[in-house]
């Protein structure tokens, strides 16, 4: 999950989640060190404390450059602050910053992500080699102060992000991380598009000899896709997690709980910050997936997707059809005794043995 203002106005989300990515949360480098030698850790301290209180792991994104440290301080094309997209002028400033953070939060921050979306010029306008140098220094320092901490490779996004990742891995970046990060956005398309995108990222990793976990560290929907139907929104959420895991991503960080400007699929009301109906899709899929083993994901000729899970040796199935409403016959060997929707509605299977399947995922539980 992403939460932007947990330390101030946003009540802690009432959906269950295990990891929190600190991005757009006011704790990037330019916020933590606004002046040379002057660190401001108050906000990050509070976020770290909140995470501890709620037993949530943290992923901190280390970029972006403060203007004073930037190699291009006059660059106004940065998404956050002048010069923020450029690598630091002096690598020693980056070393001092990473060291200060790793030393202060040793054992309390699970993972560090080198940068955000480096294939987009508004976030990173340096070269692939520049990013490899930053990753090399950060990896060395983090492991020296906190050997158990994970280092996540800077996550590209979109098809161009795959090209960038390939160049980064060829330049040795894969050896400087424990996890490969990527933003597997498919907006405004439907969640099913994440399957091919994930497989393409994994293929690039394989080609470069990288066998490490893949984390989707930012994902959601934005303009021009809008959701007037909260059931549709809930279905998108639950399908996203099912499809991402089945495709090979071991984590997905939803963006974002309290973003009311960019995103269009809201888990919480943009004004009141009270949970929307779509949040039920998040809570339900958490109950479905956590503690289970992913066995298979297939698409039937009629467009119906079937995901097979195993829980304590018993197989469960999740079914949906994103394109139309269809009737499927429930095989006897599935031994279905309960049907649960992604919005939490539970019922008995039809006596006819024929089930209506649509865009909202249904969990078929056996006897």
Task: Give a short overview.
The chain has 367 residues and is α/β, with parallel strands linked by helices. The protein has helices at 29-32, 42-53, 91-104, 128-145, 158-170, 194-207, 230-247, 278-289; strands spanning 19-22, 57-61, 111-113, 150-152, 156-157, 180-183, 214-219, 251-254, 293-299, 305-311, 314-320, 326-329, 336-341, 346-347, 354-357, 362-366. Helix 5 (158-170) runs parallel beside helix 6 (194-207) and helix 7 runs parallel beside helix 8.
Walk me through the structure.
The protein is an alpha/beta fold and 367 residues long. The protein folds into 2 domains: 19-290, TIM Barrel (Alpha-Beta Barrel); 296-366, Immunoglobulin-like (Sandwich). Helices cover 29% and strands 20% of the residues. The protein is built from 8 helices and 16 strands. The protein has helices at 29-32, 42-53, 91-104, 128-145, 158-170, 194-207, 230-247, 278-289; strands spanning 19-22, 57-61, 111-113, 150-152, 156-157, 180-183, 214-219, 251-254, 293-299, 305-311, 314-320, 326-329, 336-341, 346-347, 354-357, 362-366. The chain has a 6-stranded antiparallel β-sheet, with helices on one face. It has a 4-stranded parallel β-sheet with strand order 1-2-3-4, covered by helices on one side. α3 (91-104) runs parallel beside α4, α5 packs parallel to α6 (194-207) and α6 (194-207) runs parallel beside α7 (230-247). The longest helix is centred in the middle third of the chain and has 18 residues, at 128-145. It is elongated. The two termini are 33 Å apart.
């Amino acid at each position: 999950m992403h939460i932007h203002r947990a330390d101030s106005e946003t009540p802690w989300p009432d959906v269950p989640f295990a990891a929190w990515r600190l991005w757009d949360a006011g704790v990037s480098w330019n916020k933590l060190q606004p002046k040379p030698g002057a660190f401001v850790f108050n906000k990050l301290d509070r976020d770290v404390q909140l995470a501890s209180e709620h037993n949530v792991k943290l992923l901190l994104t280390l970029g972006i450059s403060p203007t004073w440290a930037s190699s291009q301080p006059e660059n106004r094309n940065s998404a956050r602050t002048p010069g923020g997209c450029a690598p630091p002028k002096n690598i020693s400033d980056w070393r001092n910053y990473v060291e200060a953070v790793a030393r202060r939060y040793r054992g309390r921050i699970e993972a560090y992500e080198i940068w955000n979306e480096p294939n987009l010029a508004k976030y990173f306008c340096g070269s692939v080699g520049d990013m490899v140098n930053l990753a090399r220094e950060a990896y060395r320092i983090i492991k020296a102060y906190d050997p158990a901490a994970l280092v996540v490779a800077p996550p590209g996004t979109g098809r161009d992000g795959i090209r960038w990742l390939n160049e980064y891995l060829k330049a040795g970046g894969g050896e400087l991380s424990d996890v490969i990060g990527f933003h597997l956005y498919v907006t405004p398309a439907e969640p099913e598009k994440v399957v091919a995108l994930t497989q393409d990222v994994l293929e690039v990793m394989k080609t470069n000899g990288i066998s490490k976990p893949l984390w989707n560290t930012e994902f959601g929907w934005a303009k021009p896709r809008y959701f007037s139907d909260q059931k549709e929104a809930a279905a998108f959420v639950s399908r996203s997690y099912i499809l991402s895991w089945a495709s090979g991503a071991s984590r997905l960080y939803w963006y974002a709980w309290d973003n009311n400007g960019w995103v269009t699929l809201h888990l919480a009301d943009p004004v009141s910050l009270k949970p929307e109906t779509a949040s039920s899709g998040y809570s339900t899929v958490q109950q479905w997936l956590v503690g289970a083993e992913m066995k298979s994901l297939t698409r039937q000729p009629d467009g119906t997707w079937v995901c097979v899970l195993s829980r304590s040796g018993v197989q469960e199935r999740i079914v949906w059809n994103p394109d139309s409403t269809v009737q499927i016959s429930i095989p006897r060997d599935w031994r279905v005794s309960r049907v649960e929707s992604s919005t939490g509605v539970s019922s008995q299977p039809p006596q006819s043995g024929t089930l209506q399947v649509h865009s909202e995922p249904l969990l078929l539980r056996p006897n």
